[in-house]
Amino acid sequence: EDGGSPPRSSTAILQVTVTDVNDNRPVFKESDVEVSVPENAPVGTSVSQLHATDADLGSNAQIHFYFSNQISSLAKRLFAIDNTTGLITIREPLDREESPVHKLTVLASDGSSTPSRATVTVNVTDINDNVPSIDTRYIINPVNGTVLLSEKAPLNTK
């Protein structure tokens, strides 16, 4: 409005667009997950589906999942994670006798400085896949795989 006589005024509409800044980090729905998987589960079997959300918008809310460098080389060899969906699958056959428990530290990042962390504990359950072994310990030395006993040996001779 001007100070003239008569006063004149004018109006304008100002449109302000607020753009998103990547100021929120991803948040896991569950930060500690424990699952059991039989040791005979086939390669490609789903182990766990992780879920994370990000309060930012657009590309600032795109979450990338990956294993921490702190997990064992065996776990990295046995398990895979889809970097966009957070689905953990079996990459190589499991063997409970080799390792019955695997701790997988998973990170979720949206490109900001600090990723979020979740731990997936995979318990490998036993399947009856090993035949029993017989340990033969002879008191008398065998000859060509045969132990010779006299028929005159007393009862309870070992």
Structure explained in plain terms:
It holds the Pfam family Cadherin. It comes from Curruca communis (greater whitethroat). InterPro entries: Cadherin-like_dom, Cadherin-like_sf, Cadherin_CS, Protocadherin/Cadherin-CA. It is a single chain. 4% of the residues lie in helices and 28% in strands. It is mainly beta and 158 residues long. The protein has a domain at 27-125: Immunoglobulin-like (Sandwich). 16% of the residues are buried. The mean pLDDT is 91.
Keywords:
single chain, 3-stranded antiparallel sheet, 9 strands, mainly beta, 158 residues, 4-stranded mixed sheet, rod-shaped, Immunoglobulin-like
Shape: rod-shaped
Distance separating the two termini: 118 Å
The average pLDDT score comes to 91
The largest beta-sheet arranges its strands as 2-9-8-5
Poorly predicted regions are none
Looking at the overall shape, the CATH architecture of the domain at 27-125 is Sandwich
Query: What percent of residues adopt helix (DSSP H or I)?
Result: under 10%
Q: How many DSSP H or I helices?
A: 1
What's the CATH topology name of the domain at 27-125? Immunoglobulin-like
Could you tell me the strand content as a percent range? 25-35%
